[in-house]
Design brief:
The chain contains 16 helices and 17 strands. A hairpin with a 5-residue loop joins strand 9 and strand 10. Helices cover 53% and strands 21% of the residues. With 609 residues, the chain is an alpha+beta fold. The chain has a 5-stranded antiparallel beta sheet. The protein has 5 domains: 159 residues, Beta-Lactamase; 42 residues; 96 residues, Beta-Lactamase (2-Layer Sandwich), CATH 3.30.450.20; 68 residues, Signal transduction histidine kinase, dimerisation/phosphotransfer (DHp) domain (Helix Hairpins); 162 residues, Histidine kinase-like ATPase, C-terminal domain (Heat Shock Protein 90), CATH 3.30.565. The chain starts with a helix and ends in a 22-residue tail after the last strand. Bound molecules: adenosine-5'-diphosphate.
Length: 609
Amino acid sequence: MKTSRFLWKLYAAYVVLILLTASIVGLLASQQVKVAYRQDREEQLRKEADLLRDESHSALAAGQDPSVQERVQRLADTLGIRLTVILEDGAVIADSEKDPASMDNHRNRPEVQQADKNGYGSASRHSDTVNTDMLYVALPVNQSGRRLGYVRASLPLTVIEDRMAQMQTAVAVGVFVAAAIALLVGYLFARHVTRPLGKMTVAAMAIAEGEYQRRVDQTSSDEMGQLAQAFNTMASQLEERLRTINKDRKELLAILSGMVEGVIAVDRDRRVVQMNAAAGKMLQLSPSQCIGKNIAKVTRVEQIRESLSSTLLNGAEARGEVHLNTGSDQHLQTRTAPLLDSDGNLDGAVIVIHDVTELRRLEVVRRDFVANVSHELKTPITAIRGLIETVIDDSDMAGKIRKKFLRKIRKQSHRLSNLVTDLLNLSRLQSEESGLQRNVVDLREAVIESARELLALAHEKSLTVQQQLPEVPICVWGEVDALQQAITNLLDNAIKYTPQGGKICLRVFSGNQFATLEIEDTGIGIHPKHQKRIFERFYRVDKARSREMGGTGLGLAIVKHVCLSLGGNVSVESAVSKGSIFRMQLPVVTDPQAGQGQHSLPLKPPDEG
Ligand code: ADP
């Protein structure tokens, strides 16, 4: 549509130009033809008057000649014009149109007066004699320097005008035909010029609607062809740039969605322009629903809104920490930075949110652990110091009592030693968690070995120890020492927390993927509220009792770490006053030959519970 409008505009200008040129050319040509024709006719009349001069010379010299009229008449008929012979005083002696006797004196006729003065006279005016407009040409007739009279040739102007009208018509027709041809050529030219433009317009609109691979044909090498080439180059560059932008955008989105940190970007009006999945998860929002909304309406977390607002106000970076209590404790570290446009003007702000909940939890755990270790170490040390001081201060102390004190000191130092050993074991396990050596170990042998060490203790308490072991080896991936340490800890607990005369059963069996070791006792049992926490370091159900029994509070934590580092797990089933079952599950080795030496495959525990 636009193309055709442009075509008509171009064509209209062309039409105006052609018509104007044609009119001017027509006007000038017809004027020129008119002047030339008149001059031509005048010249011809002059020649004819010259002929008449020869013819009438003698008659004029005689002053009168009856035959002159006849000769004039004949000549006029031959030439097809009017001829007049006039004496010097103005009397007409011959005229081809009228009887000279009835004619006026012609001395004052303009052409005659001019001929008298200049030797040649011409005039166009109305003739009363023939009652029509005429063109007159007069020449003087002289003899030996004496003026005899004048001859005059004339032609009705209508004859000239008719001829001139014919000629003007011919000029007009010529100009018209030329103009028509010019208009047709002009139309074709305008169409030729505008057609590529129209194609370019259509292509540009297609590109604007997303058809970036659209191009135009380059059919010529003129300016239009160069324009088409420039258009195609521009379209290619645009396509390339858009491809780059899209690629960058996709990469950015992939980075954003893969980030652990939450990212929210807002524009100058605080509208959310970007939010990644991590931010949505931390703030319990749906990113797609937040885009375009004001941040104040998106989140109720005051610190996040204020951080963004202040960065938008002063363009400065800001850091902060948010503590949320939405069901569970959440610690978020925030860092806000301004977003600048290409001119360096503030265009928005971005906040990066780092979930430090686990970090904070670990800090607390570490703090508690240090406090617990200090406390646990301090207790036996204080006791030992007190006991030693008492022995030193009381030099008169009876030998029996002194022995009793020394036994107590030995017990406390054993406790101290156990504690340090357990701490060292735990620290070794934690530092080697991912790199604990894994060899093929027959679980039955590890159980028999551990039981042998503790059998004496069980007998001391009159406990029955039963072993239900299969006849075939049950091979697991494990480090013998670590595995025996874990089994010993569990068996030691079973002995410690089972009253005299109780029963302990050691069971080993194999499933599809995991081998299981169960240590069941008929001891004091554990209340459900403690069952989850007994695997934490220094957690004890009954502190005093545990200490009394020589426990460090680290036994089960060591068991848990051994199991986890070997790709297994540990769990408990227990009922107060009835007893407990501690269950260790470890990945079973299906092909013991393949398992010789080290093994580094990641093994997934069946159930963390
Ligand atoms: P401790 O050195 O105190 O025994 P552990 O880590 O081995 O530390 O055990 C943690 C706590 O779990 C113990 O203090 C005890 O209260 C409880 N516990 C462990 N094993 C048993 C069991 N077989 N019967 C009852 N309670 C147990």
